[in-house]
Amino acid sequence: xxxxxxxxxxxxxxxxxxxxxxxxxxxxxxxxxxxxxxxxxxxxxxxxxxxxxxxxxxxxxxxxxxxxxxxxxxxxxxxxxxxxxxxxxxxxxxxxxxxxxxxxxxxxxxxxxxxxxxxxxxxxxxxxxxxxxxxxxxxxxxxxxxxxxxxxxxxxxxxxxxxxxxxxxxxxxxxxxxxxxxxxxxxxxxxxxxxxxxxxxxxxxxxxxxxxxxxxxxxxxxxxxxxxxxxxxxxxxxxxxxxxxxxxxxxxxxxxxxxxxxxxxxxxxxxxxxxxxxxxxxxxxxxxxxxxxxxxxxxxxxxxxxxxxxxxxxxxxxxxxxxxxxxxxxxxxxxxxx
Length: 338
Fold this sequence. Notes:
This protein is mainly α.
């Protein structure tokens, strides 16, 4: 049994797969709304008279806003299309809105993940640098700049500048016209891939690897530090006893400082691990879609034309990243506060 959708034949097997992915997307969206609601309720509850602000708070809010925007505007249409195996994005205005929201939130999350990794890198390796102080003092402004930068990249295609938004794959969602052969479109698409995937990819890999190796070395060094306790003899004078007590107090202070430093390093390692998970999860979910579109740009899309379900599956997989990222960050923040 085959189902026709916009002159694209959807087999029964592919339709069953789309329904399964639509169900997973519904479950992920439900958990996102539930956990995000509890997060804001806990932050603004009567038990807390103020909103806890730290470097990650604006990042969490930015991710929550983008995921909520996707869930409210894009996910319902995608889920309905997955279950019915029919496309409902035939109107150009709907396709433009759908493409703009998906593309802008995708780029925004890429910038946020890169910002999170780079901030963790500065806080661990260059804590006293002016750049680290700047990012820490203006964390909300940094997130706003990420949003404005994403809009600058994604708004021109709405008006047909550089490229345009069209239905992709079997028509379940809209994206850029990666097959447009015009010179301006090629320049725009190449710039999008270069500046919004490969450069952030290098930043993510470098920042996370440096942080992981540095924290591993510091924890290993702190764990090997030992102190020799002093012993008192029964025949010492009062002056000698006071000197020993003073030395013991200094050693206790040093031990306390070392313990606090070790605890901070463990917290940094925890945050670094969560940042690494977020970055890896984002790259894993977006890399297949990026590779498919690169093949379209360079004209090696014969296999994709024969299998139009492939970009659709990659696009659905990428949407999971936009929903899951804030949940991971909220969970890590809650564990660290505890």
